[in-house]
Amino acid sequence: MKILFVLTTDSLGGAEQYLKMIATYHKGEDISIYYFKNNKRGQWDDVEPFAKKYLMSTFHEVTGIINFVFRMLIDRQQYDYIYTSHIYTNSLVGMLKSVGIIKSKYFIARESTSIFLRFKGFKLSFYAFLYNLGYRKMDVLICQTELMKTQLLQHFPRISKRTKIKVIPNPIELKGKSELANEPLDEIFERNCIVAAGRLIALKGYDVLIEAFELSKNDNPELKLVILGRGPLKEMIEKQVEQSLFKNDIYMCGRVNNVYKYFKKARICVVSSRVEGFPNVLLQMMSQNTNVVSTTCAGGIDTINGIFTCEPGNAGALSSAINQCLNSNTRNRRKIFDEFLNTRSLEQFLNQVSETIT
């Protein structure tokens, strides 16, 4: 079976983690993975034993897109399955299938974020253009939540005439994660830490998290804040930390290879995002810890039993949720979380995909 994966970069955000899970699940098949741009972080090196990797550019995504199109024109491959999970790759593959440059039995596309909540102005207009131009020849378009599907249909109603739209919650693969969670951790991070993880961008709400931490620290002086990740707002966030009265208790750790050991030892795990498609990191946190706080940054979060929630972008509300979690006994929530995560297995996800397209 020939399977094609098309990605914008070889980084490892939520969309890329999803595609990597599926590629790993299909090891043993004839797998080709194309990246428009190489970020040289080595986060996909472990797929090399079972997949062919093609890096289209080390310079810019646009160059990579052009090289990818020419590669497809030359190769003219026939695939059994194509998987994508970004508006650029969804649209490009849809266009190439429409004109016969790429052929496949099934094309499975996935929305990676809530475009119409996240973007405005020219960028939103450009994305709307991509929807109109390239969202075709899909056998299914997967939305992560009902809210994501509703927004898509409100702003692009004709999509329902072009393809099936199916809400399938994000999967999580927990095999081997207990070993990662038990790896040694620096002693300073083993107790009283609030842990958050993700790219350092405005949508992740780290500015709000730092303010909420300061509010909660007044009544809980032992607390520390640990932020895992890197990104374009690194200097801005570091400046906010430097101006904080509690700067010595805030740790910017950059990107780490193993978040699970931090999540397991955390006093509380927090998702502070303003808006998300659905935060995969929330599922990762729930797999290791029963003290979990999240903003309602995506559809469906407010229905998850056992986590503490609050509205996005409100430091006071986030601090209150953190304090409520600190003062609660959550030990009985391990079973609740495990049962919830079991419904998110990769096998169940792929079964739902198969039922939709066949």
Structure, described:
The chain folds into two domains: 181 residues, Rossmann fold (3-Layer(aba) Sandwich), CATH 3.40.50; 166 residues, Rossmann fold (3-Layer(aba) Sandwich), CATH 3.40.50.2000. The strands form two sheets. Strands 3-2-1-4-5-6-7 form a seven-stranded parallel beta sheet, with helices on both faces. The protein has 15 helices and 13 strands. By secondary structure, it is of the alpha/beta class. 41% of the residues lie in helices and 19% in strands. The model has no long low-confidence stretch (mean pLDDT 94). The chain is globular, with a radius of gyration of 21 Å.
In terms of per-residue confidence, which ranges show pLDDT below 50 for 5 or more consecutive residues? none
- What's the main sheet like? 7 strands, parallel
Q: How do the strands of the widest beta sheet line up side by side?
A: 3-2-1-4-5-6-7
| Level-1 CATH class name of the largest domain | Alpha Beta
Radius of gyration: 21 Å
Question: Globular, elongated, flat, extended or rod-shaped: what is the shape?
Answer: globular
Percent in strands: 15-25%
Helix percentage: 40-55%
**Superfamily (CATH H level) name of the largest domain:** Glycogen Phosphorylase B
Distance between the termini: 16 Å
Provide the residue-averaged pLDDT: 94
Look at the helices and sheets and give the structural class: alpha/beta
The counted number of beta strands is 13
> Which CATH-level-2 architecture of the largest domain?
3-Layer(aba) Sandwich
Looking at the structure, the CATH topology of the largest domain is Rossmann fold
- Helix count, DSSP H or I runs of 4 or more residues: 15
| Number of structural units classed as domains | 2
Succession of helices and strands: EHEEHEHEHHEHHEHEHEHEHEHEEHHH
